Amino acid sequence: MGAWGPGIFADDDASDARENFKLYLGDAQDIAAATDAIARDNGASFDAPEHNSAFWLGLALTQWSAGWLDARVQAAALRLIDEGLDLAKWAEGPPRMKRAAALRTTRAKLVSPPPPPKRIPAPWPIQLADFTVGEILGRRLPGGRLAVMKVIAFRPTTSLKVRGPAVRVQHWLKTGMPNATEAAQLDYLRHPLGPNKIQTVGSYTLAAPRSAPLDPALFIRPGIIVPLRPGEECVSYTCVSTWADYTLDDMLAAAIERFWDDPELPPTASAPWYDHAKARAPAPDDLSSPAG
Asked: What is the DSSP letter of 188?
């Protein structure tokens, strides 16, 4: 959605920074390390804060309010304000004036003493902790089809307060697991369908309630680890235990179904509804008036 108002947190990047920093801090148990991690995962640089201005401003206010303000984050936010780098993104008019006022309020906070620091939160438990980034997994589905996945990261599930391995479904259309050479050549599905068939799912987090974590025996683990492809880890994720009444098998079956049904379909195939929309759109020649 991006920004929906001139307030500092009326922006997805700033709002996400506020919501997620405690998770990074709980994992790292160190302010600087947590800051480095959340900046890295958001593609944000201290050297060029203008490219992620909403993120830095949201993170700075979040840290200040909790008494954890990293001096590097403070400097990045003040640079954005004092050099007009953030305000330059706003067109003339009332929203720009309101943004300027929000930036002045933010600056006043950031140069004032922060409140006493809050206690660093405890880290959330990690489920399936022995899974490894780059590890190839398999899951045999009802009917005999095989879903092959690759671990791309460990992601938090806020509602369960746990972390678990996030996986992307790979393009593999055989009933046996790939060997190491084959696994290294696999591509990931860009737009696998969700089980409701009305949306796509980038990746799945293999997490469950703390009282009943997923059993590692659910997965085939041949011990193959391959490097991630560029951008493979940069994707949204959905927890397999928190989406309606769908099971893990429901989700994986829906993800691979159209690729098994049409082996010629490439892993980059868009969702069917996008293809249908393109098919309905008039071709450029159709836009001209009929001759005669």
From this structure: B
3-state secondary structure 150-197: EEEEEEEECCCCEEEEEEEEECCCCCCCCCHHHHHCCCECCCCECCCC
Among 132, 105, 112, 155, CA closest to 227 = 132
What is the model's pLDDT at position 47? 94
Q: For the beta carbon of residue 122, count every other beta carbon within 10 angstroms.
A: 9
Tokens of 31: 């302010």
pLDDT at 215: 96
The number of residues making up the chain comes to 292
Residue 79 has pLDDT above 90, yes or no: yes
Residue 153 pLDDT: 92
- List the strands of the sheet with 146-157, edge to edge: 136-140, 146-157, 162-169, 203-205, 237-239
